[in-house]
Amino acid sequence: MNHIAVIGAGTMGNGIAHVFAQNNHQVSFIDISENALTKGLNTIGKNLDRQVKKGVLSEEEKIATLKRIKTFTKVEEGVKGVDLVVEAATENMEIKLKIFENLDKVCDEKTILATNTSSISITRIAGATQRPEKVIGMHFMNPVPVMKLVEVIRGYSTSDEITNRIMEMSKNLGKIPVEVSDYPGFVSNRILMPMINEAIYALYEGVAGVEEIDTVMKLGMSHPMGPLQLADFIGLDVCRSILEVLFEGFGNPKYAPCPLLVNMVNAGHKGAKSGNGFYDWSNGMKDLKVAKRFEKKSNKTSQEA
Asked: What is the pLDDT along the chain (305 residues), one digit of tens a residue?
């Protein structure tokens, strides 16, 4: 599988395009927004520069990687002749179903269709196509060029052949693939999101402040990043969406998103992407501070957020 198409130029999409191109694949980088593609390419360039500075890549390898990426604003043009499509669009069921219904029509019969979804059913996505045996999940972790894990999720009809090919390809990218079954949240988010949600509840109920909660989990449980900072990094809107998928899929109230999380997303406080969440991200990671609203860890302050 040499020619790959990546749909979506956001954080995950540009990271996936970066990794494939760096590993000698020709990449069709697709997004309906020309500005998003430009921004995505700029991000890839900056990340490659960082790798060159660290000695991971040479300047020549960086230039070669960028040359392997071609941009497209029309899906039907970008997917011509590709062996694999990796969809990394918005984490929204309706959007993904429309994308896969269209991909099934415009892609070659041989083309494997993968989704980077972090929680949505692969089986349901595959149901929008006439090739469910060739539909699979490739859940990369953020930041994609750095994180080794890929959750490879096989839907109800995904074939052994396709699963094995995607597992092998993931290894060739320098990743460590783990095969999991298609249930809400798969493994990573089924375990991670309830922990994040519980941390938000601890803040909401005034048990402790933002920094205190994160410090307990970093020092006591050896987590490299506290759950509230991680939630900001992932995106609070994404966390809420995944929890809603889990809640709908299992019907268990333990997965219902905390009211504080819901209020923050409704207010536009989505974490790093919006500049404000549990932390103030206006100066980036180097000068990360607890958001002004959460500076005092009183029960009243947290519930008012």
From this structure: 899 999 999 999 999 999 999 999 999 999 999 999 999 999 999 999 999 999 999 999 999 999 999 999 999 999 999 999 999 998 889 999 999 999 999 999 999 999 999 999 999 999 999 999 999 999 999 999 999 999 999 999 999 999 999 999 999 999 999 999 999 999 999 999 999 999 999 999 999 999 999 999 999 999 999 999 999 999 999 999 999 999 999 999 999 999 999 999 999 999 999 999 999 999 888 889 999 999 964 444 444 45
Q: Which amino acid is at 289?
A: K
- C-alpha dihedral sign at 33, 36, 42, 43: negative
Best CA proximity match to 150, nearest among 101, 187, 97, 190:
187
Query: Which residues fall within 8 angstroms of residue 109, CB to CB, at 6 or more apart?
Result: 131
The residues, any chain, with a CB within 8 Å of residue 75's CB and separated by 6 or more, are 7, 30, 99, 102, 103, 106
Distance in angstroms (rounded) separating the CA atoms of residues 252 and 246 = 8
Q: Which residue has the tokens 């509840």?
A: 201
Token representation of residue 66: 């960028």
Catalytic site positions: 118, 139, 151, 189
pTM: 0.90
Integer-rounded Cα radius of gyration of the chain:
20
For tokens 């062996």, name the residue: 83
| Residues near 44 by beta carbon (within 8 Å), at least 6 away in sequence | 14, 17, 18, 21, 65, 66, 69
Cα gap 127→157, rounded to integer Å: 9
**Helix pair 11-22, 59-67: axis angle to 10 deg:** 110
